[in-house]
Each structure stands twice: as C-alpha cells, then as structure tokens.
Amino acid sequence: MSRKWYERIGPLGLWNLYKDDWLVTRQASRLFVLSTVIVLAMTPIFEGWLDPKKMTFWTRLPWGILGIIGPIALFFLWIGMWRYWVRVDSSSAWAKRFWFLVLLIGFWWGSCLYCFSAYLPQVLRRHRAEA
User: Fold this and answer.
1) 94 phi and psi, to 5 degrees?
2) What is the average pLDDT across 110-125?
3) 83: exposed, middle or buried (C-beta count within 10 Å: 0-12, 13-18, 19+)?
4) Cβ atoms < 10 Å from Cβ of 54
5) CA–CA separation, 119 vs 121, rounded Å?
6) Which domain holds residue 14?
7) H-helix or E-strand spanning residue 9
8) I want to staple 7 with a disulfide (CB 3.0 to 4.6 A). Which of 14, 16, 81, 113 is the partner?
9) How far apart are the two ends of the chain, measured CA to CA in Å?
10) Percent helix, strand and coil across the chain, each to the nearest 5
11) pLDDT at 28
12) Which has the closest alpha carbon to 76: 10, 14, 21, 12?
C-alpha cells in the first residue's frame, strides 16, 4: 500500500484533502466565500429562530435545501480555514494566536470571521502581487 492511499482515509483524510497551493487559488477563495454566506444564512436554523410548523411548503423548501447544503459548506469552511491557518497563514505570531482562539472558540462562525478578516485579504494580496 502506498502512503498516498493511506493519507486519503481515516479522520485525517479530510484534512489531507486540501492541498496548500489550492487553498490560495481564486476557485478556493470563491468557494470559501460562498460557504461563509451559506453558514451565515443557516444561523436562523441553528438558533431556532424559525418555526417550520407555521411555514407553507414553498417557504420551507428553500430552508430544507439549505439544511442539506449547509452542513457540507460548514465543514468545508471550518476544515479549510484551519488548514489555511496551520499551513499557509503569514500573520504575525500574536495575530495567529488571536485567530487560533477565534477558530477554536468560534467554531464555524469563527471560521466565517477568519475567512473575511484574515484569509481573503492575504489571498487577494497574493493575487495582486502575482499580477
């Protein structure tokens, strides 16, 4: 069995799914922003602000679709932002400590904050420097 096969299975399989060079591509940044929007749109569901019993079918349908797509986006964003923080983030030591706490305590909402405040500015700067 090759080592590459082993890296794709188990709990670390998701962690090794992202490659460092892919995390800073335009496609990745677009997917992370989309995932952030989806996670923020799911906040009313997480907080229990919606009462599906009072909604019509057509009103519940988009929330149901969001309930299916949301967890995928949530884990994609959460794992991706942790991977970026660990492997690529070029922030100062104090900033990295701060973002560690935000990612650890804030879960997916912390990942949303990190995506907009640390990840996107660094990726955009990198793309501008390449152009």
Assistant:
1) -70, -40
2) 95
3) buried
4) 8
5) 6
6) 3-130
7) none
8) 16
9) 42
10) 80, 0, 20
11) 92
12) 14
